[in-house]
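Lab channel / #folding
Pinned by the channel admin:
"Please post every new chain as: sequence first, then the structure tokens as a reply. Keep commentary short and put observations after the output so the thread stays searchable."

First post following the new format, from NK:
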Amino acid sequence: MMAIAFGGEDAVAAATRLPTAPAHEDVMHLNFDGESAVAERASALRVALSEWLTSLQVAPDRVYDVVLATYEAMANAVEHAYSSGQATGTLDLHAQCTPATGRIEVTIRDRGAWAVHEPDSTRGRGVPLMHALADATSVTSDDDGTTVHLVWDSPVPT
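Reply from TO:
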């Protein structure tokens, strides 16, 4: 099994140098731990995820679905997990892809307490979007934070 782990300011640059998955590899991993839960970092992680999936020769339509659903989960962590007066929190992004089967799993984890916002007709579409884009979606929260787990079971039909 090959594991790729990096983070911090060099994440996007490192993602552009990722090798194509060798045919004998069972599961490929992309891991970012303790990333700042800020919009700029979530955007950089979105780019890194897209480039990583593309390097694994995942179909462009599937890359789009995975990246959009994952970004929605990260945006929720940025916006909802940490109070505005609090120091910047963190989030983790863990992705794995099994090229032979096309299965992709992504987990996004924060360590905050969910901030509730007033109802608004322009809000509240992120979780339903994640459910629509992924084959399976779970969102769990406890005293240690929130975890979103997204699964795509098979490649996009050709």
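NK: Helices lie at 11-15, 39-55, 60-80, 126-133.
TO: also worth noting, The CA atoms of residues 49 and 67 lie 7 Å apart.
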